[in-house]
Design goal:
single chain, alpha/beta
């Protein structure tokens, strides 16, 4: 691993192409998953995570230091249960809905299971 001049040049070209200030390239999918979750979520945020996510995503979840609620794999009823519990908890604590950043973390195609 490591960054060389070619990587930096590619990042500059992609940033220019996408009309953004900067871009970042990762050397493999695992580091992308781990870094992305940890970059978006932080201490105090809440992640609602499918229990079957790939290990690098799980690592990103833990590295983020966010609060975590798990739901059963691909079980929308269980996801709804978790979300309803969060709503009830918000009401009980008189917390405004936007007082905490919240993310639902899933995979499009579950690498470990092959499910969608």
């Amino acid at each position: 691993y490591g960054t060389i001049d070619t990587h930096l040049q590619l990042e500059e070209k992609i940033a220019h192409f996408t009309n953004t200030d900067a871009a970042i390239m990762y050397s493999d999918g695992a580091s992308t998953c781990t870094s992305t979750v940890a970059a978006f979520a932080k201490r105090g945020d809440l992640l609602v995570v499918d229990e079957a996510v790939y290990e690098p995503i799980m690592s990103g979840v833990y590295l983020s230091r966010a609060n975590v609620q798990w739901f059963k794999h691909n079980d929308m009823d269980d996801l709804e249960r978790v979300l309803v519990e969060l709503q009830l908890q918000d009401k009980k604590l008189k917390r405004k809905p936007n007082a905490q950043r919240r993310f639902i973390v899933v995979e499009g195609l579950y690498k470990n299971l092959g499910t969608i």
